[in-house]
Amino acid sequence: MLVFAALALTIAGCVYLYLASPNQKWLVQALPGRPALVAGGLLLAAGLAAWITVLRPLAGFFVTLHVAMVCLFAFPYIAALRGKGRRN
Amino acid sequence: MIRADIIKLYKTVHTWTGITCGFALFIAFYAGALTMFQEPIARWASPPAVGVAAVPLDDAPRLLELVAAAHPEAREEGIKLHLRGYENEPARVTWEEDESHEAGQPHGHVHWWATLKPDGSLLAKQEEPSELAEFINTIHMRIGIPEPWGSYFMGVVSLLYGVALIAGVIVLLPSLVKDFLALRVGRNLKRMWLDAHNVVGITALPFHIAMAITATALSLSHELWSLQEAVIFGGKQAILDERDNEPFRAPKPIGEAGAMMAPSQLLQRLKAQVPDFEPKVMIFKNIGDKAASVRVAGAERGYVGDTHLGGVMLSAVTGELLKDSTRPSRQDPDRRASETFYGLHSGQYEGATITWAYFFLGFSGAWLFYSGNLLWIETRRKKACKGGELPEQRRDTYWLGAGTVGVCLGCVAGLSLTIVAAKWLYGRVDDLNHWHEYIYYAVFFGSVVWAFAWGAARSAVHLLWLCAAATMAIPLTTLLAVLFPALGMWAHGSAATIGVDVVAFIGALCFAWMAVATTRRIRNGPTDSIWSIRKADGDTVPHKPAATPAE
């Protein structure tokens, strides 16, 4: 159960970080920078804490990092594919 | 602010290291992504067998006794008792024996499995297991180049990959913050491919740095050890090797008979002594001797590199813990560091989350090199003047386009078809493991020749359809096995093997989508490109840019 919570927190943190970026393409307007970045950072920190609880500090850190990397490269591609779908 | 001439220099370094290593790295990353599911693929490819369940754990002592009596070599080399009941474990007990060879000479092994007949007597059979998953791993590690040259080559490629990463980051520094997470799809194709390349390269940079360092070290490990021996240890490394190997060495037999503890009791003793350890397989040595031992290989969750070489050794007579310095929580710092290093490369920790993350990151890595080549081609595209004649594109862009399509899609189609062959050719050819190699290389080299013969644009469509068909053949083969049992194929019902079919099905749909999009692009896209099949037809109607994955 805690694994799912850790995963959800990590992904949610990345969503906030992406939506805070001026280059995001999911929303018409990016979320207000600082609050969204803080929210994203806190969610990621909570995700990291959850992963460390499930695993150990080093493994927890690397799992958080790798999930975040997947999210952050996937989100711009998902946005581009959605945009392409709408244009078609 | 970095000087423009420095940026230009690093751009040149990044471009040429990327272009020269891109093909090899695409293959390494694509095959590497598949190796994240090495065990499910091995299970998918393994024919139905007697299985572990045929001999309950309570009957295992008799089976071990009979195998040890009938196969003395197995008794010395180690008899594996499987605990999980996976499809690639043909029976409760397996072991390897040396092929006949001259003393001291390199030699292969033959594989045996054994079970109990209904009357309680021994049934042992020599049968070679599917090596499909190992073959995919070989392609990942050495892209098919034989040893030792394959390792040397990939060591150098990994080193250059690291150089390309550093140079690429330096080139990006001036616009890093401004363009972070930007993927601008529009008329400017060069901008789009640059964004598509940078998004993957920058967001997954820690992964790529880890891969570059670990792949270099793993590929050149023999050479690094030799260098250490010469420069640091001065011939004394054998002492360290001895210390490293000691935890894996079973006690020597003493020649006195001893009553073996039952495996189920040994597992209880293990649980009591090492509660967090998850056993996968028990390897018995010197059964029947008072000094008989069992090494239990398995995982200790929570550590990076939690399963690689990890295990504990018990006395098979008393269940007493003999050696446990190879399990993660008891490893000494240098071994823990090296296991962490290995675990970071192979994604061997945590479980499903990290397996999937590495799978997607592996594909993103393959895409990084593919998109790098597309960017190189797009950057050198000669554009038509408004209303003017179509310019002749540079020959090198034609060659790189054809090479990119042939090598990358040839690798994809070759791996898919060789996976399919595991079921179609089983029992129909003598040496299936060699057939996996023949099929992969035939498809791979055939695709490269095809790409150069037909050109990048046309061959991209042909080969993408080939990839889609070959990948779709994986779940279709399983479906045919269910519908027509007379074909002699099989369909395992475990979640892991069904997962292989489901992922292949989704992958095939993705390739089909790319093929359709590429067809549209080569027919309707801008004509002043190597990705168009339209001749100079005087068409001056402005085209909507239609970038596709194959472009």
UniProtKB/TrEMBL annotation, chain A:
<keyword id="KW-1133">Transmembrane helix</keyword>
<keyword id="KW-0812">Transmembrane</keyword>
<keyword id="KW-0472">Membrane</keyword>
<feature type="transmembrane region" description="Helical">
    <location>
        <begin position="59"/>
        <end position="79"/>
    </location>
</feature>
<protein>
    <recommendedName>
        <fullName>Transmembrane protein</fullName>
    </recommendedName>
</protein>
<feature type="transmembrane region" description="Helical">
    <location>
        <begin position="33"/>
        <end position="52"/>
    </location>
</feature>
UniProtKB/TrEMBL annotation, chain B:
<keyword id="KW-0472">Membrane</keyword>
<feature type="transmembrane region" description="Helical">
    <location>
        <begin position="490"/>
        <end position="516"/>
    </location>
</feature>
<protein>
    <submittedName>
        <fullName>Putative transmembrane protein</fullName>
    </submittedName>
</protein>
<keyword id="KW-1133">Transmembrane helix</keyword>
<feature type="transmembrane region" description="Helical">
    <location>
        <begin position="198"/>
        <end position="220"/>
    </location>
</feature>
<dbReference type="Pfam" id="PF03929">
    <property type="entry name" value="PepSY_TM"/>
</dbReference>
<dbReference type="InterPro" id="IPR005625">
    <property type="entry name" value="PepSY-ass_TM"/>
</dbReference>
<feature type="transmembrane region" description="Helical">
    <location>
        <begin position="438"/>
        <end position="456"/>
    </location>
</feature>
<feature type="transmembrane region" description="Helical">
    <location>
        <begin position="152"/>
        <end position="177"/>
    </location>
</feature>
<feature type="transmembrane region" description="Helical">
    <location>
        <begin position="463"/>
        <end position="484"/>
    </location>
</feature>
<feature type="transmembrane region" description="Helical">
    <location>
        <begin position="12"/>
        <end position="37"/>
    </location>
</feature>
<feature type="transmembrane region" description="Helical">
    <location>
        <begin position="356"/>
        <end position="377"/>
    </location>
</feature>
<keyword id="KW-0812">Transmembrane</keyword>
<feature type="transmembrane region" description="Helical">
    <location>
        <begin position="398"/>
        <end position="426"/>
    </location>
</feature>
